[in-house]
Amino acid sequence: MRLLFQKLTEVEQRLLTIIAKRGVRSGTFEARAGFLPQCSNDACLFVHVVRPFVSHHLSRLDSMAPRLTTPPTSHSGQVLSRAVTFQFALDPNAQQRILLAKCAGARRYTMNHHLARVKANLDARSTEREVLSESGDPCEPSTPSLSWKAFSFINAFNAWKNGESEHSLVNDDGTQGLAWHHELPGDVFECASVDAARALENFAASRRGERSGTSVGFPRFQAKGKVTPSFRLRNRATPGRTPSSQPIRFCDPSHLRLPKFGPVKFFGPSRKVRRMIDAGRFHVYSATLTQRAGRWTVSLTGVAAELHQAERSRTNRHAVPFGVDRGITSLWVAANANGVPFESFEGVKTLKQAHASLKAANQALARTTPGSQGRQRARSRLAKIHRKVANTRRHLVHQASKALVDRAQVLVIEDLNVAGMVRNRHLARSISDAAMGELSRQILYKARWHGVEVRVVDRYLPSSKTCSGCGVVRNVLDLSERTYSCEVCGLVIDRDLNAAINLARWQLKAPSASP
Predict the structure, then answer these.
(1) Whole-model pTM?
(2) pLDDT class of 181 with cuts at 50, 70, 90
(3) 3-class DSSP state for residue 89?
(4) What is the DSSP string of 281-347?
(5) Where are the strands (E) in 149-199, listed by range?
């Protein structure tokens, strides 16, 4: 076999080594060789087994390489490299509402099935390790570990629900598998399996210390009434196919066709997205359907072409850098280095304005009897108020971020520690209502779309304490002081405007040359 290995090229040798270590779905090299008993010598084994086996996997890698390195191309030749999501509110009929609820329940069912299998396997292996450690036996547990890969989850659940597994359910009529899985789209089960594998991977990466942020525990089981009803459908079509042949497509300006659902009515203008799809400038990858406060929404996620060059290089944008100071009273205040105010956007106070309505709705909910229809109606009224607050805030933040990238070529923003700021219980509600983190996220991705440069300043820069007139830094500046007064030069200026001027003057320090 060593002589056979030397006959392969360097790339084939490396691939065969990886296959020998990890194994492949189509069978190992030794399993392939077992099907050829007539190969009595190494030369026959090399011709009929080794070379075809390695060539097969090399061809698979070659076919996957363009998909992994180059962005997809639409049917009109457009290069799609921009991640975009369009969201619409749905107006399903009675039968479609029932099917939507069934799909959301099927996703919870699939997630819980995978989590129960993994938890039972982990508990069994942990128990065996304890028994072996007490007996002093250094052997590994006899229970094999489960693979947490998405493909393994998909294959295992498909075999289980189709009655092809030995652990499949046995129905009353003697058949095996889930009797109702044919009523729902198959993507519901497969996408739920992918979500379960992703949650377990986050859990494993957090335990290994490879995931930044707060620690992630074992995924929770999905309970009806405690999780947001949601599921995902994939658009099983390559970007090169025409839009009319794709499973998820627009039938007319007010209906969207989904697999197993047929045409579903939706609200809102769809002219822009329909024109982009017809022109090959947008391709839908998946549709995520979510129910919030009794209303179903669909999010069409996909890739789109880059914006036109005229949009990315507007002539009416200010060329000088503008500092953007985010706050509570004003959502943001912008100014250039010379102290010329650019614009200020009114602070988002949707939660504060709806506080009285939320208080009354919460009190009405507390007076109802648990489990009664009156409690369901009270919960629905409270959820609708929260939904209106969230939608209004999102709309205002979109307006504010779009105004910045439309009128400035260079933006300078702070890297605020929003998670630490909300720990202040006196300001947590106002800071959360201002949506500072969401505003920063929208500025970053919209600036990337429109060709605007964004400079992120370190969070420890004393932009508010520094005088924009003489540069003196104050030791103490209370949050209640909305006007900055300098004791050295006598400058009196708005606190947020002073911070915006200092941000505009910030320059990225060049790395010092080594001696």
Answers:
(1) 0.79
(2) very high
(3) strand
(4) SEEEEEEEEEEETTEEEEEEEEEEEPPPHHHHT-SSSEEEEEEEEE-SSEEEEEEETTS-EEEEEEP
(5) none
